[in-house]
Amino acid sequence: MAIHTYGPNAVDWEQRIDLDRLRKERLARLKAKLDASSLGALLSFDFGNIRYMTATHIGTWAMDKLIRFALLPRGGEPVEWDFGSAARHHQIYNPWLDHTGGPPTAEGARQTGARAGISTLRGAFHPDAGIAADVAAKVAQVLHEHGLAGEPVGVDVAEMPILAALADAGITTVDGQQVFLEARRTKTADEIALLTQACSMVDAAYQELYEFLKPGVRENECVGLVSKVLYDLGSEYVEGVNAISGERCSPHPHVYSDRLIRPGDPAFFDILHSHMGYRTCYYRTFAVGSASRAQRDAYVRCREYMDSAIAMVKPGVTTGDIVALWPRATEFGFPDEMAAFALQYGHGVGLSIWEKPIFSRLVSLDHPEPLEEGMVFALETYWPASDGWSAARIEEEVVVTADGHEVITKFPAEELLVAGRKYWTAGGALDTLRESQSNLNTAAGRGDDRPNPPAAAGRGDEGVRAGGGA
Fold first, then answer.
1. Cis-peptide, bond into residue 251, ω within 30° of zero
2. Which of 10, 49, 315, 458 gives 20 to 30 Å between its CA and that of 388?
């Protein structure tokens, strides 16, 4: 294992994650991509891009409000506008921002790298309050200071009144998202370490979940358990937990419910959280109490697609090469790739969960992207079972190394795990490879004359592992 997992504390006796180096290397990459572009500056309202550019953060409560903004002028340092008190906090505690400042304000105060400012609160401010015009004026001032007044500005995401105000101020705006994403395409050593640590926290959450699963618990209780484990371990933000069980597994609804988990149910989960800004996207599938042959077979198929994809990962291989290994949408019940999007899928992981590169038969065969050392991405596979209602879902996060790859999601997934209490009958352990309806486990129920299978602990030879709660 080449990628280390460190403790979360800072110590003097071991070299761990270097956060100062992280900040400097991220900004250097973004500056290099800006210099290589035709843009004069980059303007960001996206929290991930602002954090990448400035290493500032005010809490996840503000992620969907588009209230903060930051500008990186060509040849200059980032300028970030924030809630007044947050900007003051940055001035005190964020020495890496350029606080030497531009020219003094009319009141004589020296401008700094962190300044008070606010956008339009997604329209909540009265349109006549002049907030959008104020944003444009602030941006125009910095561009003028750097001699970039006539240069195009790349914007990632923005509200329509902001774009209109920028145009009124004589600022030409173009798509800047690609510059940000190209800078974030490959990860630094410290970013990879943080992503690995984020996965280790999910490893722990899955261990608790595996021991918790049993008939009678609800999907939303599983979400609550996972969230508590992650926050107790220091997670910055639990972005979401997909908890899907029973007949909800096929088709995949992508949202948890309050459904009660029943004996013999399949249950799959996706855990998405943020550790110091760095995300996870990490699926695991379990059977609760026992697994049917249809469930087991779906899992085996799902795992085979995953393993064949991971085995191919190395620099120079393309996203098109990977998705060519995966089934067409029509092979698992969907009319086209748009209808099956994100079921056989891959995506970069970093300060957001869907970064470059993207792996999908929808786009990757026609627009392949080469894999590069330092990329970190998640690969996801799915297969619906032949019973028409259950399914398997697996996801692994992979780092592209100089000569291959390393998987940083460690909770066991080679075979289908059976969670919940182990049941004992008069003849021994209840078989964990069985149908949830008992009559189907008899020779008559199967419609054949084979003898009923003897009770066997684990049935490991069948690709199912038993365990879980007491």
1. yes
2. 458
Listed residue (181, 135, 171) closest to 349, CA to CA: 181
Residue 284, C-beta contacts closer than 8 angstroms, at least 6 positions apart: 206, 268, 269, 394, 395, 411, 413, 417
| Greatest CA separation for the chain | 94
Euclidean distance between the first and the last CA atom of the chain, given in angstroms as a whole number: 33
Return all residues near 360 (Cβ < 8 A) that are at least 6 apart.
Answer: 323, 337, 341, 342, 344, 345, 346
Strand segments, DSSP code E, in 38-77 are 41-44, 69-73
Residue whose C-alpha is closest to residue 270's, from 290, 286, 288:
286
* Tokens read off for 214: 């049993």
Give 150-206 pLDDT, tens digit per residue: 999 999 999 999 999 999 999 999 999 999 999 999 999 999 999 999 999 999 999
Cβ contacts of 66 within 8 Å, gap of 6 or more: 45, 119, 120, 121, 122, 157, 158, 159
Specify which residues 243 forms β-bridges with. 269
CB 180 within 8 A of CB 44: yes
Domain boundaries, given as residue ranges, for the chain? 19-184, 189-419
The model's confidence at residue 104, banded by pLDDT at 50, 70 and 90, is low
Q: Is 428 helix (H, G, I), strand (E, B) or coil?
A: strand
pLDDT digits (tens, 9 = 90+) for 322-336: 999 999 999 999 999
DSSP label of 322: H
C-alpha–C-alpha distance, residues 225 and 145, integer Å: 52
pLDDT confidence of residue 108 = 44
Question: How far is the CA of 466 from the CAs of 197, 226, 417, in angstroms?
Answer: 28, 21, 6
103 burial type by CB count under 10 A (0-12 exposed, 13-18 middle, 19+ buried): exposed
The rounded distance, in Å, linking the Cα atoms of 420 and 417 is: 10
CA 64 to chain CA centroid, Å, is 16
In the 8-state DSSP scheme, what is residue 425? E
| Fold held by 189-419 | Creatine Amidinohydrolase (3.90.230)
Could you confirm whether domain 19-184 is CATH 3.40.350.10? yes
pTM summary value: 0.92
Spatial separation of the C-alpha atoms in residues 158 and 70, rounded to whole Å: 12
Contacts of 342 (CB under 8 A, 6+ apart): 360, 380
Q: Tell me what pLDDT residue 26 has.
A: 98
Tell me, rounded to whole angstroms, the distance of Cα 293 from its chain centroid: 31
Task: Decide if 271 contacts 226 (C-beta within 8 A).
Answer: yes
